[in-house]
Amino acid sequence: MAELRRDPLLMIGEGWDAYRLIDSGHGRKFEQFGPHGFIRPEPQAMWAPRLEEWDAAGEFLPGSDEDGGGRWNLSRELPPGGWPLGWEEVRFNAQPTPFRHLGFFPDMAPVWAWMREQLDGRDQAETLNLFGYTGVGTLALSRHGPVTHVDASKKSVAQARANAALSGMDDRRIRWLVDDASKFTAREVRRGKRYDGIILDPPKFGRGPANETWRLEEGLAPLLADCRKLLDADSRFLFLTVYAVRMSSLALAGLLDELLCDLPGVVEHGELAVSEGGEGSRLLPTAIFARWRNPV
């Protein structure tokens, strides 16, 4: 029976050669993506910046809509096709997108490392990446065996495949699928499929390739219930991240505990955060998570 650990954890991204959180404050953050610095909105940076000036190549200016919108104000010319960055052996393309991101989520770096730890020593593990975006997590997992990558955005899946080619991993055993995550997972249950690990990063709101509507509060519990049916006592992990919602990580952990209580292992929860560089660096929270791990 899985043990629920109620004390929250912190998974902290320290930054690496391709990415640094330089400073934050007054609702914004200043980050370095390879050779270029950018300013993005960050409501949780409620303190004051430590640097007097931020020398950035561009800033994302949010729209008036609380749920999104906005535009990039670029002060310097950038490579039109983006520029390559890396995490360990994975390579990927970075560039400003209309959704304020730059083509990957740097705060996920400790999650990629954690998943690899759960699969250490295995090269035939089958894993599933739901809402896989541009595939950095998928490529990190592909070291350990076949991966199924699912995202509703045709453009994101195309970028993920391009990142695989950039990494020299286009021959890895990866299924690239443009599909609705809930519908795909339900079909996998009917097929009797199982996985050694599942990662999912669902948005607050989204639409599938056939205009299916996704709302986190309505869809998460049924989706996780199907994910449970794709795991067994020999599976290693499930990792769930949630951004930009009024929800507690303890609530996510309670849901996992209910659904996975018949499996061995541990259910944990907490926050993702990125550390600023330098002495006395502050932690900028970015998301909440819940995870199940089974140290078989």
CATH structural fold name: Rossmann fold
SS elements, strand count: 18
Considering the protein shown, what is the CATH homologous superfamily?
A: Vaccinia Virus protein VP39
Largest sheet: 9 strands, mixed
Low-confidence spans: pLDDT under 50, at least 5 residues? none
The dominant shape is globular
Number of domains: 1
Radius of gyration: 19 Å
Return the string of H and E elements. Answer: EEEEEEEEEHEHEHEHEEEHEHEE
Mean pLDDT: 94
The assembly state of the depicted protein chains is single chain
Please give the share of residues in helix: 10-25%
Structural category? alpha/beta
Q: Distance N terminus to C terminus?
A: 13 Å
- CATH class equals Alpha Beta
In what range is the share of β-strand residues? 25-35%
The CATH architecture assignment turns out to be 3-Layer(aba) Sandwich
Helices, by number, come to 6
Explain the overall architecture.
The chain has helices at 109-118, 136-141, 154-166, 181-190, 216-229, 249-260; strands at residues 3-4, 9-13, 19-25, 28-33, 36-41, 58-62, 70-74, 83-87, 90-94, 127-130, 147-151, 174-178, 197-200, 205-207, 213-215, 237-242, 266-275, 283-293. The chain is of the alpha/beta class and 296 residues long. It has a single domain, classed as Rossmann fold. Strands 1, 2, 10, 11, 12, 13, 16, 17 and 18 form a nine-stranded mixed beta sheet that branches. The chain has a five-stranded mixed beta sheet with strand order 3-4-5-6-7, with no helix packed on it. A hairpin with a 5-residue loop joins strand 14 (205-207) and strand 15 (213-215). The chain starts with a strand and ends with a strand.
